[in-house]
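Service request form, structural biology core

Requester: graduate student, group of Dr. S.
Request type: structure prediction, single chain
Budget code: on file
Notes: please return the result as structure tokens.

Sequence provided:
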Amino acid sequence: MEAKLPENLPAHLGIIMDGNGRWAKKRGLPRSAGHAAGAANFKKLTRYCASIGIRYLTVYAFSTENWARPAEEVSALLVLFRQYLEEALRDFREDDIVVRFIGDTSAFPKKLQELIAETWEVSKDRKGMVLNIAMNYGGRAELVHAFQALARQVKEGALSPEEITEGLISGSLYTAGQPDPDLIIRPSGEHRTSNFLLWQSAYAEYVIMDILWPDFTPDDLNAALWEYANRSRRFGGV
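Core staff response, request fulfilled:
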């Protein structure tokens, strides 16, 4: 029997996929095993979100700060990213999901960059859910990137400082043209934003769940969706 879902689903859902390392440690496994389990769960939850009508899904896969992790763990993550994209190109052709990448992907190895470009090219004309995979992403870095782009326009005389608005800043972000996230879910029980969608999440609802990401299920997602649906969103009003 299918679970009953609320009528007012978020148009844009963000997920901070957290807890892979702790999941592995609890089982006496290397951290890379936790990342592999988390990647498998990501595929399952992505397809589930598409099936229930989520229009935009943004997942936090690799932050600008993650480079500071042990080299062995970073290498394992890059291998996982490559495997995922190769599988997505092979197995996801029938999935009506547009796959985008937000963040500075130029820092990744050339082969991974080529797979990122190919995945985007293959999926860009699809009509279904938009999946944003945040890789080498940080909210502060994104804002610096946007402000620098606007500053260049000012320097070139195409824009005056007085013309810079919230709309122009939003249009200079990686998520330009997309609605801001309505709901951001953070499994693992941590109570922080971790530099994720800082500008876009100004009025997002947060749901923190004490479940490590590899254990996060569609039922857990449904529970978060109901919690979101039962909140009163006033956007600063009464």
